[in-house]
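>> received
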Amino acid sequence: MKTKHYLIAADVEILVDAASQYATEHSFNVSIAVVDEGGTLLMMKRMDGASVLSTEICQEKAKSAAVSRRATKVSEDMIRDGKIGFLTINAANGMLEGGEPIVYQGQVVGAVGISGVQSFQDAEIAQHAIQQFLEQQT
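>> returned
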């Protein structure tokens, strides 16, 4: 039997705090979602000035990254390249860049989704938060 890693409440707070700090330093007003490996919401934060719609989009990005086990940019690129069949699945709302899976010791343990600025900036925030989290695990 294998050992299964999972996010605990303290981990989620580290991720949200790192994302919030990075966003604040860059004057970004975003919403941040962290989900478990199955896409279930663990925490969502809407920063001051972030749009109401960003709260839904960040959750969908995080869920899509978790269940697909890959960054949402991969799916966005596939759709852009003509594979429009992806638009018919339930997770299509989260197929914009800005959702990043959290991979710990080879296992996807969850994902971070960001929405509120340009998609590449959303992804940058999520990647930064995950990097900060993983550095604390060693």
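>> The mean pLDDT is 90.
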